[in-house]
Hints:
Layout: H1 6-14, E1 20-23, E2 30-33, H2 36-43, H3 55-68, H4 89-92
Antiparallel strand pairs: 1-2
Amino acid sequence: MIALTKEIQQAIKDSQEDPVRLVDPETDAEYVVVPVETFELMRKGVYYDDSPLTEEERRHLLIQAGLRAGWDDPEMDVYNDLDPRRKNESSTQ
């Protein structure tokens, strides 16, 4: 294990818990210093999950997309009357 330099220690203190970015001056390669707890969570996939969406997740995303598209606008309520799955009360009377 390599000990941190005073300069890197100060950068970590100043970062306010944000990851600290380092650059290798010889290769221009960039690195990120994160606390070991954060690194372990990343390794376990806590921050990224590429498994298929559950039915609940899909439903939530569809609702959010509908809301962004304006389907919660009261002027769109007229379309509820046009739903062919609903019985037309006016035709039964």
